[in-house]
Amino acid sequence: MSRRAARGVEGGAGGRPRVSACVVARDAERTLERCLASLAFADERVVIVDERSCDATESIAISAGARVIRRAYAGNVEQKNYALDCAGGDWVLVVDADEALSPELARNVMRWLESRAGAFDGAELGRKTLHLGRWLEYGDFHPDCQLRLFRRERGRFSGANPHGRVRVEGRIAKIDGCLEHRSYANLADQIERVREFSAIEAVSLCASGRRVRWTDLALRPAARFLRAYVLNQGFRDGFAGFAVAVVSAFHVLVKYASVFEREQHGVAPREAAAASARAR
């Protein structure tokens, strides 16, 4: 018997396809309840809890009626593909624990699945980020279309951790509404996330043989700031837009400086791969 048959996810409500909502979570007690409530229309909700999680994430997911699976963290891409393997629906909706569908988007997703899903293999959702007291309308965080809804058999996550993306074979649509992203508790949280993510990215670059020149250190952070603040008009978001542009530039600097530091200390690709596992 297949995993899917064993789970026994029955047909979707209203004649629409069966839908599994998949969430990967770690220390997400601040946002998980809102996330799962926005997915109440799904035929099942699967939460993959990182075993490193040490807050109330698991109990919140259980209380919400989700199917909870604890798993050792193997990387963001690997965790999400594991969630797809655990899903029983014909379609999957992959949402991060710090995201939630707005009521409008949830309604539009259900209507789209009932009336238009047969002609497509996936759908993009428009994501908007709340940071420093405002919804960001410009800069690098907007517009931010995310391919998150797709036929389970036609999509897989790929790319470099920690920010892999799903690839879907077939036609892609766009569903109106807002995927609300509450990624950072505050500016300090964003900077801490930069430290964590840049470490993972640096060891991945080093393991792939990527070499860093002084021009990378001098020009790439400046280019990122100009793109976010000027080209993408982050200045129109006020202080929040300026802060996002500065921290984005800092992220680029730390990532490439970390690769450069490893090169100077002679970290070999094999050692870098081992370090990547520790960093995750």
How would you portray this structure in words?
This protein has 280 residues and is of the alpha/beta class. The protein folds into two domains: 3-181, Spore Coat Polysaccharide Biosynthesis Protein SpsA, Chain A (Alpha-Beta Complex); 187-279, no CATH class. The protein has nine helices and eleven strands. The protein has helices spanning 3-7, 32-37, 57-63, 76-86, 103-115, 187-207, 214-231, 238-264, 269-279; strands at 19-25, 44-50, 67-71, 91-94, 99-101, 122-131, 134-135, 144-151, 155-158, 165-168, 172-181. Strands 1, 2, 3, 4, 5, 6, 7, 8 and 11 form a nine-stranded mixed β-sheet that branches. Strands 9-10 form a two-stranded antiparallel sheet. Strand 1 (19-25), helix 2 (32-37) and strand 2 form a beta-alpha-beta unit.
Helix and strand arrangement:
Layout: H1 3-7, E1 19-25, H2 32-37, E2 44-50, H3 57-63, E3 67-71, H4 76-86, E4 91-94, E5 99-101, H5 103-115, E6 122-131, E7 134-135, E8 144-151, E9 155-158, E10 165-168, E11 172-181, H6 187-207, H7 214-231, H8 238-264, H9 269-279
Q: Please identify, by name, the CATH architecture of the largest domain.
A: Alpha-Beta Complex
Determine the strand fraction and express it as a percent band. Answer: 15-25%
**What is the terminal-to-terminal distance?**
34 Å
Shape category? globular
Structural class by helix and strand composition: alpha/beta
- Could you tell me the number of beta strands? 11
Radius of gyration: 20 Å
Poorly predicted tracts of residues: 1-8, 268-280
Number of domains: 2
What is the mean predicted local confidence, pLDDT?
89
